[in-house]
Design a protein that fits this description.
Elements: H1 9-17, H2 37-44, E1 50-53, H3 61-65, E2 83-87, E3 90-100, E4 103-111, H4 114-121
Antiparallel strand pairs: 1-2, 2-3, 3-4
């Protein structure tokens, strides 16, 4: 038996407005795909580690201990091959090294699609 003292419109109003702490995928005006800006601002200041990977190599401890000034370590990438850009150790792009104001940078040549990035999280 339903309690007649509780207004029936209260449930509908909560469902339409939602919890203010969770992201809104649709605004109150019914537009789908609109994120609540206040909730998005919450994550914009999260620091992320960005790494540009030049290449990698495997060595025995014996070989590592023999390294000295002027030693050359052979990497698994070819010269001119795109560098990998990792964010929190996840591949997000590839690019080429550039020099800007006497500092190294990377020009992105290929960005991994959002769908591919989400798929790799699984």
């Amino acid at each position: 038996m339903a309690n007649t003292d509780v207004p029936q419109t209260a449930d509908k109003q909560v469902a339409q407005t939602g919890d203010s702490k969770s992201p809104q995928l649709s605004g109150g005006d019914g537009k789908a795909g609109v994120m609540d800006v206040k909730n998005l601002d919450f994550i914009l200041d999260i620091p992320m580690q960005i790494t540009v990977q030049l290449g990698s190599a495997r060595m025995y401890v014996r070989e590592l201990l023999q390294l000295g000034q002027g030693s050359v370590v052979e990497l698994d990438k070819l010269a001119g091959e795109p560098m990998e850009v990792l964010v929190n150790n996840k591949l997000v792009a590839r690019g080429e090294v550039v020099v800007v104001n006497e500092k190294f940078g990377i020009r992105l040549t290929d960005v991994v699609s959002a769908a591919e990035r989400v798929e790799k999280l699984k």
